[in-house]
Each structure stands twice: as structure tokens, then as C-alpha cells.
């Protein structure tokens, strides 16, 4: 089969995805607060409106690239690449972070036997850090993905799109692995797969209806913001997750269309974010967790009116610092950077 052309716009969409994921995790109210603090609610609502559910972007990319690169597919190479590029850095970072939080963190009376006993639980459930749930979730999908290649494309194209309606049920269970989580997210993986099958036709239609999709994205962003602002404690979770799905899918299609339109343009920043996306995924939350105390000290001496601006500056600082540490880590680890850092 013909070698597939490298799609720079999809590569840059990976950068867009990781940037959104990091903003969702590190754009936080910079001081301790209670749930009634109006500035905290404003920041949390804005963060959710723009960046909530950004994992959807990663899942679309995974499904798309699996099908797009099927001409290179062999079972051995596929599973080895997933172990090397995903599982290995996940295990490395999980054990490293567990060790740091156990022996240098707030855990009292920790012992080596307790640490060793915690390793399997942390790896199975992805609890070393908040974002790590994604790896135990996606591994079963990676395992069964080759079976999707056995489905005739005509049947896939005809029947699978009905499955794309399932996330509208809003069954996502946060970061807890469950049947509802797969019911919500697996159709998005299939959507990426489907997008690759019909890429030219779909992108042509997206380009034609880009304005309408953009309006839909804006309406979904406004709705998300409203739901968070008005009912942050007793929000209808199913409705909320359904709106997030509409928001992120419409944003995905608009951004992909705009990036494809500028396929020939190159960006060093987007290239770096894309190349280090997995390393950034593994590190950003830990970096933010370790240095957030600095933000709270600085914000305590700032004028109260600048809290919102400071929170944005802080989020961009953490992202920049994480990227620099990833670049440094790659240089230090050399040829072992892929299995250790995912980059």
C-alpha cells in the first residue's frame, strides 16, 4: 500500500489538544478559596467553558492515526510501539511520582513494603496523578483496535455513525473507569477512525459548513459557562457532559479545517508542543502541583482585582516551564527518552 503523507495539520492539532488539556488542569484560582467565592467560580466556569473535556481531542487523534497508518500495521510493531511510547513512560512516571509523594510528600509513616504494594493499584487505576486515568482507559482500546480493521469499510461507514450519538447520553463518569465512560468516549475514538476513512469528503463538507460549526461551538461554550456558573454544585451531569461533547467535537472540526487550510505553514511552537505532547501530558500536573504554593504567595500580595489576570499568567508559566523541562529531560535521557518520557 502507498505510504501515507505526513499530515502537518493533524500534527499541529495534537499540539492544540495538549495545550487545551494542560490549560484545563493548570488554569486554577491562585489562592485557597471556598465554593462560594465569585472569582473562583468565574475562573472555574471559564476554564470548563473553553477547555473542559479536552481529552476528546486526544481520542479523536488516536482513532484517526490508527486508521491513517494502517498501511504500516503489523501486530508486533503496533503493540511494541504502544508499550514503548505509552505504557513504558506511564509506568516510569507513575512509579516516580508515587515514590516522591510517598517518601518526600505528605504520607505519614510510609514504608518500602507499603510503597511496593501500592504500585499495582496505582498503575491499574491511574491514580498517581489526576490525568493518568487516561492511560488505563485507552490501553484496552489499543488492544482491541486491530479488530476494527476486520470490519469492511462499507459496513463501518454505513452503520458506525449511529454510535456517535451515544455520547449525547452524557454517561461519562468523570475519571473513574466504568462502562459509562467507555460508552461516552469509545464512540469518539471510532469517530477519528471514521474521519480517516472519508477524510477528503468530510473535510470538504466541514469547510463548507465551518461557520455553522463555529456558531455551534460558541453556543456550546456559552451553555457550558452558564451551567457551571448557575449550578456548580448540583449540575445535571448527563446534560453537562452532553454539552461538552457537542462543544469539543464542533471545535475539533473547525480547528482541523482551519489548520488544514494552512497545511503548508510551519510553526516551531506547535511542532514542539506536538512532539512533546505525551511528556507534557505526564509532567504538567505534577509541575503545577509542586509550584502552586509560589502562585498563592505571589497572589496574596497582588491587588485583588488582578486575580483573574494572574491566574492566566500563572497557567502559561506552568505550561512553558513544563515544556522546557521536557526538552531538558529529552537531552538528558538521550536514546532512552521515548520509553522514559514518551518523547
From TrEMBL:
Q: Which family does it belong to?
A: Belongs to the acyltransferase 3 family.
Lineage here is:
Bacteria, Pseudomonadati, Bacteroidota, Flavobacteriia, Flavobacteriales
Domain of life of the native organism: Bacteria
Identify the residues that the record assigns to the Acyltransferase domain, covering every copy. 10-328
What is the protein name stated in its UniProt record? Answer: Surface polysaccharide O-acyltransferase, integral membrane enzyme
Keyword DNA damage recorded:
no
Q: Kindly give the InterPro entries that the UniProt entry links to this protein.
A: Acyl_transf_3_dom (IPR002656)
* Keywords from the named record: Acyltransferase, Cell membrane, Membrane, Transferase, Transmembrane, Transmembrane helix
Major subcellular location class: membrane
Compartment(s) of residence: Cell membrane
Give the record's membrane topology: Multi-pass membrane protein
Q: Which GO terms describe its cellular component?
A: plasma membrane
From the UniProt record, which GO molecular function terms apply? O-acetyltransferase activity
Q: Can you tell me where the transmembrane regions are?
A: 12-29, 49-69, 90-112, 132-149, 156-173, 179-197, 209-227, 239-258, 270-287, 307-328
According to its UniProt entry, one GO biological process term is: enterobacterial common antigen biosynthetic process
